[in-house]
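Step 1: inspect the first sequence and its tokens.
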Amino acid sequence: MKKKIFLNGAIVLFMAILLLPAVFGVFTRLTGKRIDEELKGYYTVYTRPGFSVSSFMNSDFQTDFSNWFNSKFEPRGFYIKNYNTICFNLFKDSIDIIGKDNYIYEYDYVSSELCLDDYNNYSIEATRDKLDSYVFKMQAVNDKLKEQDKHLFFYVSASKADEYRDHLPLSVTALEPEGCVRGVDYLREKLEETDIEYLFAKDYTDDLPCDSFYATGIHWSRPYEQKIDLMVLEKVEELTGKNYRTWELGEIKTSPTPYFRDTDVYDMLNLRNKSFTETFYQYDTTNVIPDDYDPMNLLIQGGSFAIGLRKDIWDHYPDENLNYINYCEYYMDNTQVADPLYNDWNNVDLKALVEGSDCVVIEMNEGVIFHLSDGFVDRLYEILCEEDVQ
């Protein structure tokens, strides 16, 4: 009898789950109100395809319709959140690596820290050669900029996998190859042989009011970001001899809700769990404006960590002349509108941007050293150095 009740209950539950999308869809059509849960992160938007005999015969219609239906059916967000929550809590399974104390890591940062791939292992000659060429070209660019009374500043933003290596799961750290050399160590060694002005953010984690990285995010905590961004600007000011408008870090404030990017990776997991971090931190700031100040004319290239530098400068002084390039994905000037580059340096006039800048600032994260600035230094070398040779 109990077995029969259990079986009947299971059948009813299965049919309810199976029919729920249809019920929700009918409700939406009747009321115009969509019942579902919003998902965070990035996803492809599909449009409902039009039917034609040719598209049906070559299966394009079936594929396009499946993609559209899978992205639209209700309650898709409800199902995905439930599925992610079950996998995360029972199996520690997600799109990322879950470490001790629920610290979330992305693979690229872990691979760089543990040299899990050949392109991140600088004990391999071919991998070293690529970085050698990158630093050589950056030194040549640095020299050429100096001839034009311009400057280059290079900084390496920290990696969560480096800062909190002890929180990585043993199943992952056990994969680290013997005798490997991390990119961040080899890069530091090569930079020491140059006269390029540089900064490694990893060297400046002292005196922070909170962790340098939260469990919930892949980017550094806001106070750490504020500290490094201000330090970079002060280094550039010293290098150029300019007198910029800057700011001071004041009292620390706390909030139960996250500040800029504090829970970015956690949010994209789309879980029902309460955030692992309950208190977030950020410095209050006060503008420092000299009586006689120089305008900033900076060309900044880097990844998501450089977005913080761009944001901090424009939050304080939105009229400053910044040109920001995210990898080779998009370019942004003072209009703060992203202009896609489509991974092609021909889609931006770097020569003109350099001519209008006092300093070129390059940000590179420990986790993506193998990107070699996505060809940015190569392109600068072409337009500044190779033209003279020709």
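Step 2: inspect the second sequence and its tokens, then contrast the two.
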Amino acid sequence: MAVAAGSLSPTARAASVGRRSISVWRKAAVAIVVLLAVLLIWEAAKWLGGDPWFIHGTVFGVRIDYEHRPPLQWRIADDLSLPHVWDVTRAFVDPAQRNGPLLGLVLSGQALFTFREALVGFVFGGILGLGLAVWFVHSQLAERALVPYVVASQTVPILAISPIVVNATKAGWLSVALVTAYLTFFPVTIGALRGLRAADPRAFELFRSYAASRRQILMRLRMPASLPYLFAALRIAAAAAVIGAIIGEIPAGIQDGLASAIVNYNQYYVTAPERLWATIVLCSAVGLVFVGLVKLAEAVVLRRRYGTLDVSPGQ
């Protein structure tokens, strides 16, 4: 049966916290294992079909001279297409330019700038999407008339939309936020619309029997029932927000974000491919952090709203 978290005994509450801690550590362990597997596959491809490589040096006083010539030749695994993991890692601690700061520090600053743009666009898109969903759920006419256009808006390539938005608004980073909002409002609209209708029909009948107003039904029934659907949509929107911010920075000519680093290191890819790969790694990290923050917010909100623990009859 389900027992409210506030009514649990200290022992049961401690057991609940322990289970959650184990679950968090288990997920972290799975993530680490997956990451190590990716890196292992990466280097295995280099081992089998990459360019020849060697190690010459001294480790703990022991001289190491090793040269490896892969038995196969795969273009996708050569040093230009797929640098070694240690080369990409070393790129973070190499100077971004001669006598300049470390590349990792430069990329971190650019990542923070892009994250702020993505966050602003994410908020704009989330509010717009949720507002449209509330409107549609209360007006079938508006839903039938506008939902097809909402869906059709996502069929236009973002690469075509971003220059138009940037040139029309000429608002710098705010233009990028608008591009991000355009990319993020759609999943929020669809997810929230589904969630606002997810409550038990009997609950709607109960509210109507008490002459509840639309606003009361929305705030006390529809919104709480929509939270799982809404947060699922927000996680998708968070990942899309980072992509939208990076794409929007290119026509805006913003030099402080990750798009500038991508364009810059793409020009020097032949001589330093590991720098572009390091930028790609950081772009992925920004997206994962953003989605992780939304997931954390979901856990906090849903725990407060549905703070229950399944306890067997014997307990």
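Step 3: confirm your contrast with the notes below.
Residues 2-82 form one domain. The chain has two domains: 2-82, 103-306.
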